[in-house]
What we know:
It is found in: Cell membrane. The chain is an all-alpha fold.
Amino acid sequence: MASDQLTVARRRAGSRTGLTVVAVVLSLLSVFPILWMLSSSFKTRATVTDGKLLPQDFTWDNFTYVFTEVPFGRWLLNSFIMAAVITVVALFFHSMAAYALARLKFPGRDSIFAVVFSTLLITAPVILIPLFIIVRQLGMLDSYAGLIIPLIFNAFGIFLLRQFYLGIPREVEEAAIVDGCGYWRVYFNVVLPLSRPILSALAVFFFLANWNQFAWPLVSTSSADLTVTQVGIASFTTQYGANWNYILAAATVAVLPMLALFLIFQRQMVESIKTSGLK
């Protein structure tokens, strides 16, 4: 009996060790490109493609060039405005739509949700041209409105919030209704406070996705004052030549806000995963 228990314990220890090794290898593979980008951003143009991880001639000139020779600060500001506005507006309207689809009873509710969910099967490049034509007809090209409004809708956010709301006990809402609350007060005073973990996680996902937007800002804007970070970095390979040391320095700066955002909201993201199965 004791030998059987010892064998089981050894197998479990071996399984844990194997999973740990796999996790470490996958982590290194994930982190290595970021480390290489960070290291290469301090290299000179002659050594940026030498294949070595650590820079031989350490220099800050790449970052100096990025912030002095091109309007990189304006690019960062445009990206922040676009990502922040889309995130805030999308979370507000997505949470209302998800609550209606999860809790309110009205004709065609399930059909509407099916239509919304089906849009997840349509990739962005498929609707890029129709979206461009619509925005042009509305006179919103080359403006913040044309840059922001078409990107607000996101079926994934509505779907995830709806599933979260379905897991909230109905007794919580019924108690609020008994106390005299209408649907709006239940939504603002009960549902939204309970949704903080999932909303925090979605805020990070939405901000990250829109901070890294490239295709839509590229086709919807032509003014230099509306250039976002990703489009601006891509211009280094055309207008400013293929200077990979400058590109990697700009990419490093563009990554820093995302890393800071993840570190700030890491706890909320973990909580959203833990509470997504609330019953």
